Amino acid sequence: MEQRTRSWWGWGWTGEAMADEACSALAAGLPGCATDPVPVPEVPELRAPRAAPPAALAGLCTAEPAVRAGHTYGKAFRDVVRALDGDLSGAPDVVVLPRTEDDVAAVLDWAGDAGVAVVPYGGGSSVVGGTEYRGEGPWVSLDLTRLDRVLEVDATSRAARVQGGTLGPGLEDQLRPHGLTLRHFPQSFEFSTVGGWLATRSGGHYAMGPTHVDDVVESLRVVTPVGVSESWRLPASGAGPSPDRLFLGSEGALGVITEAWLRVQRRPEHRASAAVRFVRFPDALAAVREIAQSGVTLANCRLLDHGEAHFSGAASGGHAVLVLGAESAHGPVDVAGPLEIALAHGGVAEECTDGRDGAVASWRSAFLRMPYLRDGLARCGAIVETFETACTWDTADVLVEAVRTEVGAAAREVCGVDGIVNCRLTHLYPDGPAPYFTVLAGGRPGMQLGAWDEIRAAATEVLGRHRATITHHHAVGRDHRPGYDRQRPDLFAASLRAVKAVLDPRGVLNPGVLV
Fold it and tell me: Which end of the chain is more exposed for a tag (fewer CB within 10 A), N or C?
């Protein structure tokens, strides 16, 4: 079987990238966009490494150009554009692939003594600048993917001890013989790790119930520059502030998550799904609010506005679409209750509800394929990026309209043509939704970075003004720091800086992230 290779410049597998003709055809539908894709780049010549690991670590290190190139950025739109431009001036000097926890500790010891920054790296799927370094000195990318095992399964408590570098497919492959699953499936599932999920407080694509990875953590083991922190395995505890909560979302700035005990579950055997079309988005919004507050738990309850539904192929003719899904390991399930609520708000159900075709299947296919389409449009100069938030229900309709209006106006101003701002609700809570926005605008190679920076600034401003979070599940990284600094209380920021000073006194871990 032919070995698949990861793209160093864009999303996913090299063999799955869009062909030039497909890029041109897609870009032709975006007003003002170039239709001649820039060539897929070769790895450019990189700066000579400025850091030399000691002999004891040399066997874990590589300075091979393609590996360094692939670890320079994450997979955000800005990252793809810079890679297409051949801008790898910030490439890591060395990539280190530890095999054991002791290796991780040894790397941190050396880096502290040598003044070398260390950026932890899981699958490299960050879309907020979380895995790149923007400082001036030497740095190493600490690739944890050799720590990739499920070390222990506690079938009685239904939990598993998992190494932090385990990629999503590898985790499920190792749990499957036990009849178990974590059921945590972010869009980046194939290209992200357990440690990365924990360090970024990842959200899976399940819309209700245990959505964030926080909810499935029993305990964490974390290597810091000053020692190892390991919490007790507990189903719950009221014993003061949680040590796990300190490291969840810490993005590698406080320590390296090497192991976690995670709550797993039996693999589901029963599923049901349905799709409902709405003429008016406000009616759909009212329906999902009632569903979220009804007490039901759904695996999927995703609302696509008219533009998002059209772009994904889930609907034509100007309809919003609500995708419903339920699953169980214990017995047959249905979506009758939520469907009844949706119909009472003016929705019209699709005839086919088995999930294998129709709107449900179209949405699922587009969801998985979207990052490759993003890369194809980026090659033609388009602005194609997403951002997500969460807000309370009382502000949801006003926020969505403000984002559409103000971010759309910013796109028009910087690109000179009308852009598209689509919205979908990806996750639902009784007290509010998580709106997820896609921005598409025509452009030309060479202007994309500046244009997106201006559009993103407008998005950050409108979210902050409405007191909506700067991120629901994509972490802060470096790109969201202005919004995060605005969102968090000043006293908390001071406390976080103090914790950073204790755990990382020489400031080598992911400098510039969080603090």
Answer: N
